[in-house]
Amino acid sequence: MALRRLKDLPKDLDAQISEGFNNVIKITHFELSNRETNIPDPMPIWTGFFASSWKAQNSPVTANHKVENFQPWAGIKKERSLDFFERRKQGIYTKQEPPANPVVEMRFPIGDGNKVFNYRKSVFIGNKAVYSQYVLESGKIQSFVAGDLARIIKENMTEKGKLFIGGKVSEKFRGTTYTGF
Known about the structure:
Largest sheet: 4 strands, antiparallel
Helix content: 25-40%
Order of helices and strands: HHEHEHHEE
Oligomer: single chain
């Protein structure tokens, strides 16, 4: 007899799919929030605020956090801005080097015992940084979705099923894309 509804799945299969789904969410969130320099194309890091601001939840993530409102990133940005204006005043127009002390620490962790997501509901992984739509221009996030995300799904979703990746343009900030799993 064929199963026709998700709620009719055997309990062990339901638990296995749920575990695989939550592993995909946790690993994806971790890799986006991590400053790995040994991977070929690490995420863009300046102050570390963008890398620290990834969040997973059951509704679209709104990009409404400004770096200036959160320490230690506000201090790092201020230091680099002062350096930029001082260099400009002196007539130095070379490309500014990134700060030596970026801070990457997950602001919205999904560790064990925290949030467990239901695979029957949509999960959105997005960034809370206001300027996150501009980071998309680098192409590194798109490369992650096209390459690493497929690997993460293949390694963790052992049971057959469908996982959809969709995008939606935000009404508030033109160009912001929400990716849902």
